[in-house]
Amino acid sequence: MELRHLKYFTAVAEELHFARAAERLHIEQSPLSRAIKDLEYDLDVQLLKRTTRSTELTWAGQVFLDQARRVLAMVSQAKVAAKSAAQGYRGHLRIAVSDGLAQPRLSSLLARCRKEEPDVEIHLFEMPFAQQVSGLRHDLLDAGFALASDVGVDLVAKPVWTDPVAVVVPARHPLMAHKRIPLAEALKYPLVMCHPEAGSGCHQQIEAMLRSHPANPTIADYVTSLELMLTLVGAGYGIGFAIASQVALFQRDDVVVRPIAGRAPTLVTYLLYADRELSEPLQHFMARTSLPT
């Protein structure tokens, strides 16, 4: 078995179509089919069910795909680590970000790390929360940031930052009459919410906030990203809730952010990491998350 077999199989498994996989890999379909057959012969396992109309993964194929992706990711990271070492770096960290948390706090943290420990290279990856949890469990990531804390017993979710929840409204909206919007007033209007099946910690925390309020708001629509939420709010579908600094990054003219009147609820950002012995660079990184940014 060669590394190319894993690459070829992964492409076919993700496309479920030999012609598209061949095009993606920039090879002819015939050598691709032959490589998959060689792989199945080597494993003595059928990985794919082929008919004239479709290609499907067998159960063995599904299991093998997960492991193949893991091996390819580890090889890719090994290449990055070797290049980093050749360039003079004495350590590297793989940090994941979920829930659209590319905010000023994170930028300040990374800048501090580069200044205080320049010989440690930090690689940042944006991914869904479920993928981040899987990467931490399989040692493909060192740590990650998310708004969710439901990670199981083998991972740790450490609260590191809190940010007040703000109301996001269309540029022309009755709520614009308030410099600080009472939550009761905001909940009179339809809401654009994170989709509950997106695994978003933002959804979980906003839901908890809504459950603590007697109002029963109308949900205009569910979205899977902050960017789409801003698009729907700007189009007048409803209003939303978010961290103001995150919204500001998009520099949109069709939405306005207003703070919530009184004691505003907060969204908690968690630092996630595996419950095992931590490397020295990771310990230093974690210590910096607790410092003022």
From TrEMBL:
Keyword Amino-acid biosynthesis in record: no
Record's GO cellular component terms: protein-DNA complex
PROSITE patterns xref list: HTH_LYSR (PS50931)
GO MF, one annotated term: DNA binding
CDD domains per UniProt: PBP2_LTTR_aromatics_like
InterPro entries from the UniProt entry: LysR_HTH_N, LysR_subst-bd, WH-like_DNA-bd_sf, WH_DNA-bd_sf
PANTHER family per UniProt: HCA OPERON TRANSCRIPTIONAL ACTIVATOR HCAR (PTHR30346:SF0), TRANSCRIPTIONAL DUAL REGULATOR HCAR-RELATED (PTHR30346)
UniProt-recorded name of the protein: LysR family transcriptional regulator
